[in-house]
């Protein structure tokens, strides 16, 4: 079986967010235990498993080293890039059947891939006990995202977001799969409107480099704050990545580049 490592939301290797993409043979899904073993072996924030459906669409699942997740933007971007560069898709957009419904990915003339994802449902909530202490920073406001499982925490400045050194053990005790911290961009000439970071140690991901799923919540959050639907977000991890974001009602469109850094063969076939 073909397996690749692809850096998503970047135009250059060793930046953005790496995802493993495993192209499965046609037929039913392998046992979940095997999928989890492969994801642990790859030890990236997500491994995407793709298989062709009889109607020409694709089935797609995402696993962290510890658990399956309901939505993964960078894994979807990486999977689309793998299928396109491998000559496996003739029709566009590419349609994926996932735990979050049918997602589409459309290549653009400039080389970016645009993802159509469901908008997260945001509910303002009180700052959970212990969150400020876990982050090591005051929290201005919080949003719950329901089934997405991400808590959005607004901090006072971009500087605060970039300077965080959170207590990851304490983050795991928060009532969410992961915590996205965000603030408005301080430099209006920097090419982005807001900044973020994302921590999900309970899912086996201490800090995710660039998180598409979190931007399905960050996009409506900042669209309301800034009064426009087209935005650019910068995820300020060590690797970093830019995301072009557009709010389209109950959908969010995220666009970015991807680059393949490893191509290989997975010899541990499911039994």
The arrangement of helices and strands along the chain is EEHEEEHEEEEHEEHHEEEHEEEE
CATH class of the largest domain: Alpha Beta
The coarse overall form would be: globular
By CATH's scheme, which homologous superfamily of the largest domain applies? Diaminopimelate Epimerase, Chain A, domain 1
Question: Gyration radius, to the nearest Å?
Answer: 18 Å
Q: How would you describe the oligomerization state of the chains in this entry?
A: single chain
Give the N-to-C terminal Cα separation: 13 Å
The proportion of residues in beta strands is: 35-45%
Classification by helices and strands: alpha+beta
In this structure, how is the largest beta sheet organized? Answer: 18 strands, mixed
Task: Count the E strands.
Answer: 18
The total of helices stands at: 6
Tags for this model:
alpha+beta; 2 domains; Diaminopimelate Epimerase, Chain A, domain 1; 18-stranded mixed β-sheet; 6 helices; globular; 18 strands; 271 residues
